[in-house]
User: What shape does this take?
Amino acid sequence: MLGRIHSYLGSCWAIGMAILAPISVLLPLSSAAVAQTNVLPKGVANKIDRDMVQRFKVPPASIKVQNFSAQAWPDGCLGLGKTDEVCTQAVVNGWLVEATDGSQSYVYRTDNTGTNLRTETSPQAVLPLPVARKLRQAARRELNVPLNKLRVTAINPRTFDGCLGIFTPRRACTKIAIPGWQAVLTDGRSSWVYHLDRNASRIVQNSAASKALAPVAITFATTDAALASNILFTSSSSGDLTGRTITNTLSTDGKVTRLVTAPNIRSRPVLLRTLNPVRLDRFKAVLSRQGLPNLNGLNYLTSASVADVPTVTLQSIGSSVSYTSIEKQRVPKSLQSVITAWEAITK
Assistant: This one.
């Protein structure tokens, strides 16, 4: 039951400044921590097994613990209290556990004994087993990755158009409503995003959003992008030691401005430059060619995002995506191209 030992990306408040709501991610612990967390109590594992069977209808024989780490939760609700829930404020020592049924992951928080147990995975965010099997088999054929290495780590229920939500420049899509899922698969080294309908009769890789390299984990945001009609593109960087938020904005008339805010700073936007029509159109072409709409609602984050390293959020019309600033070489190539083009404008 021993797997690679991971640590938790952080509680929701830790990256609240990233604009997009965070989702939990498991990442490696230091070697010092490994020595302290190399045994998961059998009682905790058994209680997680029972919960997976009852809550998610997982066959008992298929359950395995993939990763686990010792944690100190901030309250009696294990950091997962609801808005109307009263939680004791004492620190609770316990465990963060990632279990799998061989197809997808289930993330749990527990106290030391497993008596207090909560899951970060909701029933609405779990694929039916036949659908998960079809997805993994299709990915195995396409990616040439062994089936036993592939697992689903995140699910986002979606309603797609006739193109299953995959944007391609100059391609028309039928305006029909196809219920399905956006899913993240990983083999531990890379992660891919797939779109599939409800029964997995259609499965398409979102190539623009795929091929993020570990330790970057792909998760889903819970907020939609919303920009003023005169704004073409914007970036917001926050989360470093200074407490500053740096926002760069490109308006439709080509003006590039920068606004710096902090708890004790009140400032006004500063004009950096004005793009001529040719350069403005060139940047628009990059956004279209790289399929920026295909990155909408995705986070490419690591544990560095809660360690005084800025998280950057890029927004355009109908698109919003976040990444850990120091890991931009590990995000998908399409996002790297957008970042490079934007940095050339705002430097």
Observations:
- The helical segments are 31-34, 42-56, 129-143, 277-289, 333-346.
- The CA atoms of residues 105 and 120 lie 10 Å apart.
- The longest helix spans residues 42-56.
